[in-house]
Amino acid sequence: MQTPADERQVELGDDEQEGAAEEAPPADIEERLFLHERPDALGAAAREYQDAQLEGLLHQREQMVVERRNEAIRLLEDFVAHEPEQAVEMPDALLRLAELR
User: Alpha carbon of 93 to those of 19, 26, 72: distances in Å?
Assistant: First the structure.
């Protein structure tokens, strides 16, 4: 059975902090999707900018889904390989593994 890792914090130097804010994915993608103005009141340049931002966010979301799915499959395969067949959780684990594959 897996135990959770201890939480830890990593400090960045001044040079690294400037670039890290731009490179890190947003904590809450949905929050960035909220439009403060009505779409019909926006100019063409603003619409193009928002469309580009939305495309980038959708691409990030798709990558996160793939990564999380692969991690879930790996964890379930590990569980199935190491737990006895009679384990109470085994039917649910096998069903979830089949759905993910």
Answer: 40, 31, 10
Which amino acid type is present at position 80?
A: V
> What's the full length of the chain, in residues?
101
Q: How many domains does the chain have?
A: 1
Q: What is the pLDDT of residues 47-70, one digit of tens each?
A: 888 889 999 999 999 999 999 999
For residue 23, being part of any structural domain is answered with: no
Would you tell me how many other CB atoms lie within 10 Å of the CB of residue 66? 10
CA distance 71 to 80: 14
Q: Whole-prediction pTM value?
A: 0.51
Residue in 101, 4, 77, 82 with CA at minimum distance from that of residue 93:
77
Burial (CB count <10 Å: 0-12, 13-18, 19+), residue 97? middle
Pairwise CA distance, residues 61 & 33, whole Å: 12
